[in-house]
């Protein structure tokens, strides 16, 4: 276990740093509002109690998705650090994995919920990005199982899954940066 550590850690940490930053776009701080006063008008309640079938998007990749990426990076970095630490036994790693995997699973669930509120133009690029986090979750789960049963072959397979998902998510992060026009630190190679 852990003989291939250096290239794997460097690649995952670079990916984590790439998406763990604030937006470089300046945020507006003031807005001008003009108000007018109108006389009250009597209104009648609608005759139906049926809920409206249209919804307006209420989240964005730039806000909620970015926060989830940061949280994923924090939790997965803790799991990765446990795996890479030569002083951590397999039993300790399994304990850490059992503690952290539910958090990673919840983050992926929260990513899935974003599909319900993202605007259509963001949803088009978000779906493949979400797929990479599903793959990363599967990779970490497979890694935990491989350590649990002490299978070097399964560990290698899990690491390959994680590396492939990481490379794909970096590609998606580059695409999102290109589409949104944002310059994100760590994505200079895009």
Automatic annotation (TrEMBL):
Q: Where is this region: Disordered?
A: 20-59
PROSITE patterns given for it? PROKAR_LIPOPROTEIN
Name recorded for this polypeptide: Uncharacterized protein
Compositionally biased, Low complexity: which spans?
A: 20-56
Look up and give the organism this protein is from.
marine metagenome
């Amino acid at each position: 276990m852990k003989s291939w550590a250096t290239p794997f850690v460097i690649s995952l940490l670079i990916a984590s740093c790439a998406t763990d930053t604030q937006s470089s776009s300046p945020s507006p701080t003031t807005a001008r509002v003009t108000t007018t006063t109108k006389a009250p008008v009597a209104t009648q309640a609608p005759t139906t109690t049926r809920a409206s079938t249209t919804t307006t998007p209420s989240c964005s990749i730039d806000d909620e998705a970015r926060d989830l990426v940061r949280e994923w990076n924090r939790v997965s970095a803790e799991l990765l650090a446990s795996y890479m630490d030569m002083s951590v036994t397999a039993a300790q790693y399994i304990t850490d994995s059992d503690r952290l995997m539910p958090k990673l699973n919840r983050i992926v669930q929260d990513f899935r919920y974003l599909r319900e509120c993202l605007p259509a133009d963001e949803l088009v690029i978000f779906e493949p990005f979400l797929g990479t986090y599903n793959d990363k979750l599967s990779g970490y789960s497979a890694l935990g199982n491989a350590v649990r049963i002490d299978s070097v072959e399964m560990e290698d397979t899990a690491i390959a899954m994680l590396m492939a998902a990481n490379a794909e998510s970096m590609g998606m992060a580059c695409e999102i940066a290109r589409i949104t026009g944002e310059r994100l630190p760590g994505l200079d190679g895009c």
